[in-house]
């Protein structure tokens, strides 16, 4: 019987680190959570956990899927580091250094790219070569896979900070993004909705007017992804994205109106249920994304060897 590789996946988040020892979603040997504190303490705890797993079970590779911004260019002098992150104490920190002593292949990517890869391998994007994953929670992140590979260039995608035309009558709200104010994250993430409404998003009724501009903004974000990347499917996850049953149907309707019947619209209108949907892995997409990143690193080693 074929032995599937055993991967230690590390989803490095702003408030917690999820560590997963797994071969896939149906073969998880262990998992643990570490609070994200100062970088030295946090990364040392991650290294200790992976060292223990390696001793007890053996490991084939490590995958790290991290909050950003991060340097994902292997040719860069700061590869593996947090760059320009607003998280206090983490800017410039080498996130991979404590793990290199384990002597294993290490994959490194953003948390949303990892989640996209997991959905492509095991979830709602299986069999597709081009798709996007949008997480809407305390922030908005976008991961995209084109021709089977995550999108990267000068850096990684930051489409959660795209701007779109404001919804008429809502221009008085400045947005909460500390960098851009009224970008997508500044208008449609959980803190933005709470700031607009005066209370948390999860307490709002579906017909509360505080949802109107977030729906408009998220539909515009999908519009822009469709007309730039031409994805076969867009998955909308995250605590806000999946926590509000009314949200996805409203985004689909607003997107159809926004596309206006042009180009790819003919392949999307009438098929919204197959084109714009929730992740198949649900809230497991993030931790399993780190495992998918590790599998990618192992495959790269095999190809080069």
Protein described:
- The longest helix has 20 residues, at 285-304.
- It is built from 10 helices and 10 strands.
- Helix 2 crosses helix 10 (285-304).
- The chain is globular.
- The model has no long low-confidence stretch (mean pLDDT 94).
- The strands form 2 sheets. Strands 3-2-1-4-5 form a 5-stranded mixed sheet, sandwiched between helices. A 5-stranded mixed sheet has the order 8-7-6-9-10, with helices on both faces.
- It is of the alpha/beta class.
Question: End-to-end distance, in Å?
Answer: 24 Å
- What's the arrangement of strands in the largest beta sheet? 3-2-1-4-5
The biggest beta sheet reads: 5 strands, mixed
The number of strands is 10
Can you give the helix content as a percent range? 25-40%
Oligomer: single chain
Radius of gyration: 19 Å
Mean residue pLDDT: 94
